[in-house]
Every structure is written in C-alpha cells, then in structure tokens.
C-alpha cells in the first residue's frame, strides 16, 4: 500500500435543518445549496428526534420518478406502502431500497407514538437509460445484512463487498453502502476505485480521515467528501466513531430536478408532473 495514494478530504458538509413530508423535522446533509449533489448521490437526510411532534405526521402519499430512494433505520419503526402493492415495516437496522424508475407513489409513516426515531434517507440517481425502468422494492431486514467484525472494527455491508462478504441490496449500478463502527483508535482501510465518488457521514463520535500530512478530523454531523486516491484510511479518535460509507460510479449526465422527480431535462420533469396529474405516473 506504500505506492497507493490515500484519499483526502476535499469538502466538509454540515447540512441544514429543514422540514419535509407533512412537516417532519430533519437535517438535509446532501441536496441543499451547501452541496447540491455528489454524482450519483442526489440527497442525504438524517432524521433524529425523540419528540413525536417532529415526526408523527410522517411522509404521506407522494410520487417519485427517475432515481432510487434508500432508507436505513437505526431506531424506531416506519411503515411503507406504495402504488405497486408493496407494503413493509422498517425496523431498527433494516434497509428499504426502492427503485422509483418510471414512477411510484408511496407513503412512509412512523409506526410509533413515542421514543426515538433515527435514520437516513439517501437518493441515488439513475442513468438516462434506466430512469424509466419498472419500479422495484427491496425490503432488507436487519438480520440479512452481513456484519464483519475484526480488530476493533465492525462493518455492516448493505451494498458492495467487504472482506469477501457481499451486501444483500441489488443496486442498478455499482454502489457501495456500509455502516462502519470503529472502537477507540481502530482503523478502517478500504481500496477504492478511482471512478467512484466517495463520502462518509459521521453520525456518532469522531475520526481522522486520510493519513500523513493530510489528515482531517471529522466530527459528528459532518459529511466528508474523499477524493484523489486509491485507498480510504480512517482512524477513530479515543471515543470511537460510527459513520456511513457511500461510494458510487459517476453518471456524468445532466440533472434536472423538480421536487420528487429527477430527470435529465426540464421537459422530462414537466412530463413527470403532467403524468402525475393525469394519474399516469405509475401506470
Ligand atoms: Co419518498
């Protein structure tokens, strides 16, 4: 690994507090003016609240077209229902990987009236040739997610491969999604293909990203974009760290956003609004 360059932090994103759905308070990390997108990732939200007033109204029926939504829950329960007849209950540690493709209408409602609700929603863009694919829904229970434990590290493999184990999520193109836990001072090292954009989101504790003279200390609530290198190198501080690790192949296509629709052109976004108004979006 001596000749392999270690990726360094090129940008730190702290996110903004906002509301979405029926007034759910959340933190928008990716997908705000601070960082609009990191190809192929369009959005990352963290919802964390012990106050039911912040989350009880949930995300009632709404449409999507042109990308995938990935929900990862740490605490609480969410009921998903969609216009393709899929229904599922997300419980702690589980993942829902939904390909909206040419169109789906779904609701995501908390199924709890008290206690902590904590989780993430990620939007993964689809390339032009896959934007209008048939919708697909993968409900992945916590026990189906492999966990690799070695030398003070624990990696939950949602998508991609680590230490010879593969994650259960079937992405439409290569996406790596791990939940990484490092105990005090332990290290996470991972070889990284150059063509993949990569970031980490620290949701607990802190860690040093990079090595040698180019170290950045990432704190709780920070998204770190990692660039220019073939290895990821993360060392936990004394208090340990938990972070989401995301990497995806760059699509390098034009992006046109309109609310819940993400297409290549504004004409395609207008068409999505028309199809939704005419009841044709999910037909
Ligand atoms: Co949605």
3D architecture notes:
The chain is mainly beta and 283 residues long. The protein has one domain: Jelly Rolls. Helices cover 6% and strands 54% of the residues. It is built from two helices and 24 strands. Strands 1, 13, 14, 17, 18, 19, 20, 21 and 22 form a nine-stranded antiparallel β-sheet that branches. The protein has a seven-stranded antiparallel β-sheet with strand order 2-3-4-11-6-9-12. A hairpin with a 4-residue loop joins strand 7 (78-82) and strand 8. The longest helix has 12 residues, at 266-277. Residues 59, 62, 64, 69, 106, 108 line the site of cobalt (II) ion (CO).
Number of strands: 24
Largest sheet properties: 9 strands, antiparallel
Percent of residues in helices comes to under 10%
Radius of gyration: 18 Å
| CATH homologous superfamily classification | Jelly Rolls
In DSSP terms (H or I, runs of 4 or more residues), the helix count works out at 2
Mean pLDDT, to the nearest integer, reads 94
Structural class call reads: mainly beta
Shape: globular
Small-molecule components bound: cobalt (II) ion
The CATH architecture assignment turns out to be: Sandwich
Short synopsis of the structure:
The protein is mostly beta strands and 283 residues long. The protein contains two helices and 24 strands.
């Amino acid at each position: 690994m001596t000749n392999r360059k270690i990726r360094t932090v090129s940008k730190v994103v702290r996110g903004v507090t906002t509301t979405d759905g029926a007034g759910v308070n959340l933190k928008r990390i990716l997908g705000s003016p601070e960082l609009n997108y990191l190809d192929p990732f369009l959005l990352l939200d963290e919802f964390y609240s012990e106050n039911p007033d912040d989350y009880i109204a949930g995300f009632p029926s709404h449409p999507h077209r042109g990308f995938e939504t990935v929900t990862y829950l740490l605490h609480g329960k969410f009921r998903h229902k969609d216009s393709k007849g899929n229904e599922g209950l997300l419980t702690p540690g589980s993942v829902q990987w939904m390909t909206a493709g040419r169109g789906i209408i779904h609701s995501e409602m908390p199924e709890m009236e008290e206690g902590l609700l904590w989780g993430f929603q990620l939007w993964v863009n689809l390339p032009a040739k896959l934007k209008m694919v048939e919708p697909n829904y993968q409900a992945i229970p916590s026990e189906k997610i492999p966990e690799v434990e070695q030398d003070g590290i624990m990696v939950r493999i949602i998508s991609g491969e680590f230490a010879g184990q593969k994650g259960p999520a079937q992405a439409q193109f290569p996406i790596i999604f791990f939940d990484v836990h490092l105990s005090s001072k332990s290290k996470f090292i991972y070889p990284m293909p150059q063509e993949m954009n990569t970031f980490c989101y620290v949701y607990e504790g802190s860690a040093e990203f990079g090595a040698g003279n180019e170290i950045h200390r990432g704190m709780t609530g920070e998204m770190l974009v990692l660039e220019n290198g073939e290895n990821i190198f993360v060392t936990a501080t004394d208090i340990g760290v938990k972070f989401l690790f995301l990497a995806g192949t760059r699509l390098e296509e034009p992006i046109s956003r309109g609310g819940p629709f993400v297409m290549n052109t504004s004409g395609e976004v207008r068409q999505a609004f028309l199809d939704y108004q005419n009841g044709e979006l999910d037909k």
